[in-house]
Specification:
13 strands; alpha/beta; Rossmann fold; 423 residues; homodimer; 14 helices
Chain lengths: 423, 423
């Protein structure tokens, strides 16, 4: 008979927030309720490893139980539709265990004190690095604890998984706003260029998602520019000229990470010539930099828009597919750990499912986390058109299943209700 | 027995788009179906007066009828949840009739040719000016045509009406995004200031709406800065210091129109010292200008966010109350015109309704348009706190009924479906 490792569990959130990271937390909570024979209690780190090292944690089993000790589904549902990271986050990157064994000793000592046998960490690249280093340290220790990473990043740039929870919701928000912006810009007959800047410094997945309306309704940007390929100013001008032949309202999306062939960012800050009313030096964004240059070149109305933080926190427009997958990743982490897996990250594998309408299905697996951390997955070259100014329909069809379905937050007085952990 | 003026009608949209202007158009269409004994047909101007003078119009009665000649409700519903202006827009301001009588003669000639007896124009200040001037001209002409304005502007700065259709949806979007941004910023424990720039150059209604979460959930900005009162840099620094005493994540909202006591805009462009990679002069926004100066003063992480165009086109998050009121304004314009009103704008009057839960009710009336055009309604001084860094709860309670209720766009492949007029 299989006797699972028995003890408490702890979960933390780390790195930048997303609209889906709380759904993953909900999945870990649900998973611990399911595995209650092995997991006696679930703690939450406040502000990730950082807060935990400072002695800050909470009792999630108590917070998410109803009076009968069963999961409080209303509270869990509210958590799922809350943006940001309910436990708080941090940006700490751990040193190598060999460089600072005392730190790891302290950390493991504190975990031991609470009887923790299961450690779940939800995050992106840096967080998976934390999982890898803690696992490495534990192999040299006599304390048995299973360590699992659960992926999260709107950038979709983690290796080893088909895509990352958080990406689908950001993509849905970006695609919806792009479609609305394109409709808005189309109302006038005077020539105008609108340049929309999209997050993702090293990978162009989110910028690619800006083109989704082209596949669905036709109301998408004329061109999109990804950081994976060099940005060419003359080609950009030609693209705008070509778009003006089709309609007076040109809309393009550009990655914040767009770079010239020589490696300089298009939005590179100017370090000389202070010029504003406060006498400050000027740090401009990619879209703003292009706005100024296009205005001069074409002499028409030019507007730049940075979609900014709402890309990662617009929970009111989260993708139902994304939230559901995020939750299943959390549950799978718990189930896998209880069945013996450690030092791994939950990953999704895309399967063909000719039975489903979209042909899309997922398999949840685990991957050795040491093979995943610290690498960036870019948009494949063959999904960017040879002219470097758009993505292929194949790329868009690959993203499309990830933005399907709408979530239903609880509304009160006209605003979504969020779950808030008392401090 | 009352014999109404019988003939065709025409409707146009003008000025900046909003998430609600198509609901008003839907109301005019519905109104014309209701008044079919008087109104034989409804035309739509393409791109407002501008397009109509160029001979561009369409047959809305045909487009929005089903095969039995009844209103096509599915199409009308889709129109209501479509952002921007379905008929297209323009920014033309007409001259005084005395200055260019030939233009008015041409315009009225073209209307006469189509047998138009009812003229509906949906827009803001400039559009009401058009309605006023056309009415003035008609008083000297022997052609009987009734001219009605229907208000629209996200800025809520029109005189003569309790509020304007379009404002509620923009306010709901701003308040929702502010709440999400506040949640997002709260995940870290390091000191940071986030400055969110809100539309509304001359009136602070939308910036006031950014504070709505403070009334509903407490998760709103620490301070809001309206263009109605002077912006004081030293007071702004003190406000940030005071907020830091409460929490490490300070979030403020500031109007794009914020001005110093001497009248200079906070985001005033610097006209000297070209400095970017292209050698361009720098035009900065209000939030960006403050970002640079706060970064220098406090040495902490500072982020600026411009909510930008989505404020006026985020139909996916429109206020149900706003869309419904916008539609009723359109219907009321038609009903009033048929009953003999002309040279007027539809207006809303707020009535006390102790029977309803919110105590909020509206009455639809008409006002002489010549008393409305070309004036700006600001946020009353007594609704801004004496320190000039926030609005009062009374102000927020006044805005709150306008953001109530969520709309349900039709979704296809993960994106909202919009109504598009064929060209």
């Amino acid at each position: 008979m299989f006797t699972p490792l028995r003890g408490a569990a702890i979960v933390g959130q780390s790195g930048g927030p997303t609209a889906a990271i709380n759904s993953t937390l909900a999945g870990v909570i649900e998973g611990c309720f399911i595995e209650k024979d092995a997991i006696t209690k679930l703690y939450g780190m406040r502000n990730g490893i950082d807060g935990f090292l400072d002695g800050r944690y909470c009792d999630l089993s108590a917070i998410f139980s109803d009076e009968n000790g069963s999961p409080d589904r209303d509270k869990i549902k509210m958590l799922e539709t809350t943006p940001a990271a309910a436990l708080g986050s941090c940006r700490r990157k751990l040193p190598k265990p060999a460089d600072d064994p005392a730190l790891f000793e302290t950390l493991v000592g504190k975990l031991k004190e609470l009887g923790i046998r299961y450690f779940f960490y939800i995050g992106g690249n840096d967080s998976m690095d934390t999982v890898a280093k803690l696992s490495e340290y534990l192999r040299t220790s006599d304390y048995e604890m299973r360590v699992m990473g659960v992926p999260k990043t709107i950038d979709n740039d983690l290796m080893g998984t088909d895509h990352t929870p958080g990406f689908g919701s950001a993509a849905k928000f970006i695609a919806t706003e792009m479609q609305e912006i394109v409709r808005d810009c189309a109302v006038y007959t005077v020539k105008a260029v609108t340049i929309v800047e999209i997050m993702g410094r090293d990978a162009g997945w989110l910028t690619a998602a800006a083109a989704l309306p082209n596949l669905v309704s036709g109301a998408g940007p004329d061109h999109v520019y990804l950081p994976e390929v060099p940005f060419d100013m003359e080609a950009f001008y030609s693209d705008i000229e070509a778009a003006f032949k089709k309609h007076p309202n040109v809309v393009v999306a550009v990655s914040e990470g767009a770079r010239f062939a020589d490696g300089r960012y298009v939005g590179e800050s100017a370090q000389s010539g202070a010029a504003d009313v406060f006498g400050h030096k000027y740090l401009e964004g990619t879209a703003k930099a292009l706005e100024l240059v296009v205005k001069e070149k074409f002499g028409c109305k030019v507007r730049s828009i940075e979609l900014n933080l709402p890309q990662r926190c617009a929970a009111h427009l989260a993708s139902a597919a994304d939230l559901s997958e995020a939750e299943l990743c959390g549950e799978h982490a718990v189930g896998s750990a209880v069945s013996g897996v450690t030092g791994s990250m939950v990953a999704m594998e895309r399967a063909e499912n000719p039975g489903s309408e979209s042909g899309y299905a997922l398999k949840y697996v685990t991957k050795d986390v040491s093979t995943i951390a610290n690498a960036v997955r870019a948009v494949p070259r063959e999904w960017i058109v040879p002219e470097n100014n758009n993505v292929t329909d194949e790329c868009l069809r690959w993203i499309l299943p990830l933005i399907q379905g709408e979530t239903e937050p609880v509304w009160k007085d006209g605003l979504p209700v969020h779950f808030v952990l008392e401090s």
